[in-house]
Amino acid sequence: MTDQELKDLVASLATKHIELTEAQRNTHLEQQETARQLRETEQETARQLRETQQETARQLREGERQLRESKLETDRQLRETDRQVKELGRQIGGLGDKFGSFTEGLALPAMQKILGQRFNMDVIAPRVRSRRNGHSLEVDVLAWSHAPDGDAYVVEVKSNLREEALGQMRKILRQLREFLPEHRDRKLHGILAAVDVPDDLREKVLSEGIYLARIHDDQFERQVPEGFKPRSF
Q1: CB 152 within 8 A of CB 189
Q2: What pTM was estimated for this model as a whole?
Q3: Measuring CA to CA, which residue among 169, 168, 177 is closest to residue 231?
Q4: Distance of CA 13 to the CA centre of its chain
Q5: Could you tell me which residues are beta bridge partners of residue 156?
Q6: Closest residue by Cα to residue 169 from 205, 203, 198
Q7: If you average pLDDT over residues 162-175, what whole number do you get?
Q8: How sure is the predictor about 90, in pLDDT bands with cuts at 50, 70 and 90?
C-alpha cells in the first residue's frame, strides 16, 4: 500500500468516524426530542386528566347543589300545599258551620211554631247539651210539655239529609233518658228537619215513625203523608 493509499484510507476512516459520530449525535438528539415529546404528552395527558377530574368533581358538586335546592324547593312546595289544604279545609269547615247555622236559624222559628201549635209543647229549647260519665249528648232542639209524663220531641236539623243522620237520631232517642233523666217518663218522638231529602231516605225516615220537616217557601213544614204512624221511643 502506497502512502497515498494509506492517507486515503485514513481520511476515509476519519470521514466515516465523523459521519458515525454525527449520526450518533443526531440519534441522541432524536431520542432527547422523543423523550421531551413523551414528557410533554404525559404532562398534557396529566393536565387534561386533572381538568377532567376537576370538571367532573365540579359537575358533581353542582348536581348535589341542584339536588339540595330542588329538595328544599320541593319541601317548601309540600309545606305550602299542606298549608293550602289545611286552609281550604278550614274554609270549607267554616262554610259548613255557617250554612249549618243558617239552616238551623231558618228552621228554629218554623219548628217552634210546629212544636207549639201542632204538638202543644210548652218548652222549646234549642241547642241542648248534656254531659254524663265523660260522654256528651247534643240535641238541636228539644221540646216537652209541662206534664211530667207528657211527650217530648227531639229535632235534628240538617242541610242535606244523609243515612247517618237517621242513625244519629236513633242514637239520640235511645240515649236521651240516660243523659236527661228528668225526661225518663216521657214518650220520645223524633223529627228530622232538612233542606234536601232524597226520596228513598224520605220513605225510610217515615217508615220508622220519625217525623220529617222540609223547607218550602223559606219555611220548614211538617210532612205527614196519609198512613204515617208516628213512633214513640
Answers
A1: yes
A2: 0.55
A3: 169
A4: 102
A5: 192
A6: 205
A7: 92
A8: low
Give the three cell numbers for residue 41: 404528552
Q: Which range (34-43, 97-106, 131-140, 195-204) has the least confidence? A: 97-106
Greater pLDDT, 219 or 67: 67
Q: What would the 3-class secondary structure string for 26-56 be?
A: HHHHHHHHHHHHHHHHHHHHHHHHHHHHHHH
Reduced to 3 states (helix: H, G, I; strand: E, B; else coil), residue 214 is strand
* pLDDT value at 217 more than 60: no
Cα–Cα distance measured from residue 189 to residue 181, given in angstroms and rounded to the nearest whole number: 16
* Average pLDDT of span 155-181: 91
- Domain coordinates of the chain in residue numbers? 106-223
CATH fold for the domain made of 106-223: Trna Endonuclease; Chain: A, domain 1 (3.40.1350)
The secondary structure of 84-143, three-state, reads HHHHHHHHHHHHHHHHHHHHHHHHHHHHHHHHHHHCCCCEEEEEEEEEECCEEEEEEEEE
